[in-house]
Specification:
The complex is a heterodimer.
Chain A lengths: L1 H18 L6 H26 L11 H13 L1 H4 L17 H10 L21 H15 L17 H12 L1 H4 L6 E2 L5 E2 L7 H10 L14 H15 L14 H25 L2
Helix pairs in contact in A: 1-2, 3-6, 5-6, 5-9, 7-10, 9-10
Chain B lengths: L3 H20 L2 H8 L2 E2 L7 H20 L8 E3 L11 E3 H11 L4 H28 L8 H23 L4 H15 L5 H9 L8 H31 L17 E2 H26 L5 H4 L18 H9 L5 E3 L2 E3 L3 H26 L15 H21 L1 H7 L4 H40 L1 E8 L5 E6 L57 H10 L1
Antiparallel strand pairs in B: 1-4, 2-3, 5-6, 7-8
Helix pairs in contact in B: 3-5, 3-10, 4-5, 5-6, 5-10, 6-9, 6-13, 7-8, 12-13, 12-14, 14-16, 15-16
Classes of the chains: A mainly alpha, B mainly alpha.
């Protein structure tokens, strides 16, 4: 700052003789050129400071965000950096991820993470929902990003909502999570987790932010209404009573093959032993 | 009344006599009813497959009343709300109706599917029994080949049935089947187009598979089963070696009444087990899979277990694409066309190969214990382990997911396992066979370990052995090993007395077991008085 001031003052002085129309000495011309450069730089910088969204803007953090910042400093900063800018090889930048991502990662217990691996696993949440909300508020005010709608009931209602959601689920989600939403393996230790037993807000947040290895289904890919329909379908799936009996894990023919040997064949081979032994 | 009674009593004899006058059926029937079947639990495994097949015919016939194999596009409006309003094929709609709107439809559908899995499982286990006991040897090579054909025809039948409901899972299976057919050099595209009536999936495949599933292949199965059983009756059943059993006789029970009673009882229990599984275990919940849409493929899309080994071979095979001139041979050709081809032909040739290598041209009606033919047992263990590695690899994504292993690691484990495990299995099985043989011979030479430790006057301890027969001057048994089961426990030679028969209460009085030294038992009458006093 001080050097800039100094340059500016010298610039003013050098301007006056040029207005007088006298031929300028070489030194003065050089001085003038330097001045114009400095002036243009100062103008560009000034305009930028006025219009650019300030990272360290004067806007003060809300009370929740300040609380969140304190929680962030304790729980998150070691990997994501003190200003959420990320740390190489440890944690990504959180600028622009939004409160939705924070809520998903923290309320499912994935964050704070235990260690670096192919995919961070779900575990009992380390922070309360309230704390997660505050950290989310901090990240939101810090860098913006996708936010969840209000409320805990995000399932669409209406005649066709479940059927529509089912169609959308089978096209967009089942390729990794499986038709019954029980999850499945991906390459190199990654996996699509089971969708049963997680809240509607978490499902919505997962679609919105694409946590871990999941792709983002932004509002232009799946509209908010479509997301709500998918949630309605998953809620229905959760309450599906398995009309055929015990579902053997709902993983398809693999567990069925196991069942026919462990139950059917074992029972009948013992029957054969019993019948043949009878004389 | 008095006059009619003797007539009534004579009625069966008279009417059957009249029937025999016309049909001359008495003597062939007597021959069949008197047919002798040897008794062993492992001889019931083939019967198990037969009963599963009967259940398949019964339940399958029920399903045909309600299933419409049409690929006409309809809008679902049945009882299952999560699919209401979804457009689907008529085949899928009627499958859903069977599950939700037909009374008893779901349990019959599930019984049909479980019976299909059981049918194939029983065939495999029966085949293993026949292989490991050498029952396929001359003169039964032809029946071995018929049995192998039964496996492959059953395989085809199962796959057609799996594909019929036109749900997301079965459509994915068909897609893979079409890809496999396409991979066959030169004829692939012609074959696929002919079978599917154009491009996959088209509107032809489900009606075609239906008629294959309910008429053509079942007819073939019935024909092959008839040949299989006729050959078994003609050539007579094999039997285990043992006292009184030779290569020229069959020792067992007559077909009627003993064996027939057992068969009927076994059928009822098989039916009961299938019904219990159909009622308690959910199988193939097609309503979760949705209608087949080419764009919607679920993770963990697997075929039924007996096709899983081909899924596994496809997953394990490297991505080698061979280009010859203008032709491409895709990688899937090798694991899904060539491998099953080898797996069909090689077992069929096995009886002849074994006869050639062992120079054994004789007819055999006595079975061999697996331990007595270590090479064959080792080869069988090799084949089984090969199949098991492939089958596990077919479900490796489920294994990776459930056990938290990297999917890539399971694929490589399968690749390495497929090469390393079979030779290892051969070696281990071979060694176990030799060990068991040696132990048999040891027991014949030294007798059964009694568990009685005796101290000799000079201070040595020895375990008393019970010889199985006469001994020579060194105390060694003189019995030769003849391929019979050798008793290895004192209980087997009568030390404990035979077990008390009866399921819940004794159906006969247990005979007095010989005990040494004889205890001072009270007389029979006194015992009864003692019981009465309590």
């Amino acid at each position: 700052m001080t050097s800039e001031h100094h340059a500016r003052r010298t610039g003013w002085r050098s301007l006056r003789p040029w207005r007088g129309g006298q031929p300028r000495s070489r030194g003065r011309r050089r001085l003038g050129r330097a001045f114009r450069l400095v002036a243009a730089l100062a103008l560009a910088g000034g305009v930028y400071t006025v219009f650019a969204p300030g990272v360290s803007s004067a806007q003060p953090l809300s009370q929740d965000a300040q609380d969140g910042q304190a929680l962030y400093a304790v729980n998150c900063a070691s990997c994501h950096g003190p200003n959420a800018q990320g740390v190489t090889n440890r944690g990504p930048s959180l600028i622009g991820v939004g409160s939705a991502a924070v809520e998903f990662q923290v309320t499912t217990g994935r964050m704070p993470a235990t260690r670096q691996e192919a995919q961070i696993e779900e575990k009992p949440p380390q922070l309360s929902d309230e704390q997660a909300r505050k950290i989310g508020q901090y990240i939101q005010e810090l860098g913006g990003g996708p936010q969840l709608p209000e409320g805990n009931d995000l399932a669409a209602t209406g005649e066709d909502a479940i059927a529509q959601g089912g169609e959308l689920f089978r096209i967009n989600c089942a390729s990794c999570h499986g038709n019954a939403g029980r999850g499945g393996a991906l390459s190199s230790g990654k996996f699509a987790p089971s969708i049963s037993g997680i809240s509607q807000r978490q499902i919505y947040a997962a679609m919105l932010t694409g946590p871990q290895n999941m792709p983002v289904f932004g509002d232009n890919q799946l509209t908010p209404d479509q997301k709500r329909e998918i949630i309605a379908y998953l809620e229905n799936l959760k309450h599906d009573k398995d009309p055929g009996g015990w579902n053997i894990g709902r993983v398809g023919p693999v567990s069925e093959g196991l069942a026919i040997f462990l139950v059917g064949m074992v029972a009948l081979v013992f029957t054969a032993l019993w019948i043949a032994g009878k004389s | 009344m008095k006059r009619r009674t003797p007539e009534l009593r004579a009625l069966p004899a008279e009417s059957l006599g009249a029937l025999d006058d016309r049909l001359h059926s008495a003597s062939p029937l007597r021959k069949i009813l008197n047919k002798v079947f040897p008794d062993h639990w492992s001889f019931l495994l083939g019967e198990l497959a037969l009963w599963a097949f009967i259940i398949l015919l019964l339940t399958g016939t029920f399903l045909t009343f309600f299933f419409d194999p049409s690929m006409e596009e309809v809008r679902y409006n049945g009882s299952y709300t999560p699919l209401r309003g979804v457009s689907m094929s008529r085949a899928y709609e009627t499958s859903l109706n069977i599950s939700f709107d037909v009374r008893g439809g779901l349990v019959i559908r599930q019984m049909h599917h479980w019976a299909a899995l059981l049918f194939m499982a029983a065939i495999i286990v029966h085949m293993l029994r026949v292989f490991f006991t050498g029952a396929f040897r001359k003169p039964r090579e032809l029946n071995w080949i018929v049995g192998l054909l039964l496996f492959w025809v059953g395989f085809l039948e199962g796959f057609c049935g799996y594909s019929l409901p036109d749900d997301g899972l079965s459509g994915t299976g068909l897609r893979i089947a079409s890809a496999i057919m396409l991979s066959i050099p030169v004829v692939g595209s012609w074959l696929t187009t002919a079978i599917f009536g154009g491009e996959f999936p088209g509107t032809e495949i489900i009606p075609r598979l239906y008629i294959v599933h309910v008429l053509l292949v079942p007819a073939l199965l019935v024909a092959l089963i008839s040949v299989h059983l006729a050959l078994m009756v003609l050539q007579k059943h094999t039997q285990w070696p043992g006292p009184g059993r030779t290569n020229d006789n069959v020792v067992g029970e007559r077909a009627y009444p003993r064996y027939a009673t057992k068969m009927a009882g076994f059928f009822m229990i098989v039916f009961a087990v299938v019904a219990i599984m159909g009622g308690l275990f959910q199988i193939n919940p097609i309503w979760l899979f949705g209608p087949y849409k080419a764009a919607a493929v679920s993770s963990a899309s697997q075929p039924d277990w007996y096709v899983l080994f081909l899924e596994g071979s496809t997953r394990l095979f490297p991505n080698w694409e061979i280009r010859v001139a203008d032709h491409t041979v895709p990688a899937i050709f090798w694991p899904a066309v060539v491998l099953p081809g080898i797996l069909t032909v090689l077992p069929m040739l096995y009886p002849f190969l074994e006869a050639r290598f062992t120079k054994d041209r004789a007819s055999h009606h006595l079975l061999q214990r697996p331990r007595d033919v270590p090479t064959r047992t080792g080869l069988g263990a090799m084949a089984v382990s090969f199949y098991v590695v492939l089958t596990l690899s077919g479900g490796n994504d489920v294994i990776a997911d459930k056990f938290h292993i990297s999917l890539n690691a399971t694929t490589w484990a399968g690749r390495i396992g497929l090469i390393v495990v079979p030779p290892l299995a051969y070696y281990v099985a071979h060694r176990i066979c030799l060990g068991l043989q040696q132990h048999d011979r040891e027991v014949l030479a030294h007798g059964i370990e009694t568990g009685v430790i005796r101290r000799l006057p000079d201070g040595r301890f020895i375990e008393v052995h019970q010889p199985l027969g006469p001994v020579d001057e060194h105390g060694h048994g003189q019995l030769e090993y003849t391929g019979w089961a050798v008793p290895k426990k004192m209980n087997r030679v009568g030390a404990l007395g035979p077990a008390i028969k009866g399921f819940f209460f004794p159906i006969e009085k247990p005979p007095q077991a010989p005990v040494s030294p004889a205890p001072q038992l009270p007389a029979e009458s006194e015992r009864r008085e003692v019981e009465a006093r309590r």
